[in-house]
Design a protein that fits this description.
Radius of gyration: 18 Å
Order of helices and strands: HHHH
Number of helices: 4
Structural class: mainly alpha
Number of strands: 0
Length: 139
């Protein structure tokens, strides 16, 4: 391997950050899915104002979760749980494919994905407190 130790260290640091963000994001994705299932069950039995509240909470979770699937290479990542997870997986794969210096595109992208991860987790906590707690949803 002719890659410098400094470049390999940078590759490791970026890979580690992407991996840690994936570890932080996955439990939130699982909780959102569980909450959506609970909302659906409750919605089937609800009517009137309660049904509207459940629909609003469900729509908010759907917006947070996203469902855009895998994005095309070089496209901007969606600021949703699934979009950010897919971008992190793609970045981790790209970083780990070969032992070379990270690309100039990867260097700024990993910190952006980290910030997106932090923001999405904070948004989830707000949704839990403001949207789900009053409905007695415990994912």
């Amino acid at each position: 391997v002719k890659t410098s130790l400094a470049d390999l260290q940078k590759q490791f640091e970026l890979s580690q950050q992407a991996y840690e963000d994936l570890l932080a994001l996955q439990p939130v994705i699982d909780k959102v899915a569980a909450a959506r299932a609970q909302l659906k069950t409750m919605r089937d039995k609800a009517s009137g104002a309660q049904a509207a509240k459940l629909d609003a909470a469900s729509k908010e979770l759907e917006s947070l979760e996203g469902g855009e699937g895998r994005r095309r290479r070089r496209g901007p990542h969606a600021a949703t749980l699934s979009g950010t997870r897919d971008s992190l997986l793609q970045m981790l794969s790209m970083l780990q494919e070969v032992d070379v210096a990270p690309t100039t595109q990867a260097l700024p992208e990993v910190p952006k994905l980290h910030q997106s991860t932090v923001s999405l987790i904070e948004r989830w906590h707000e949704v839990q407190k403001q949207g789900l707690a009053p409905l007695k949803i415990q994912p």
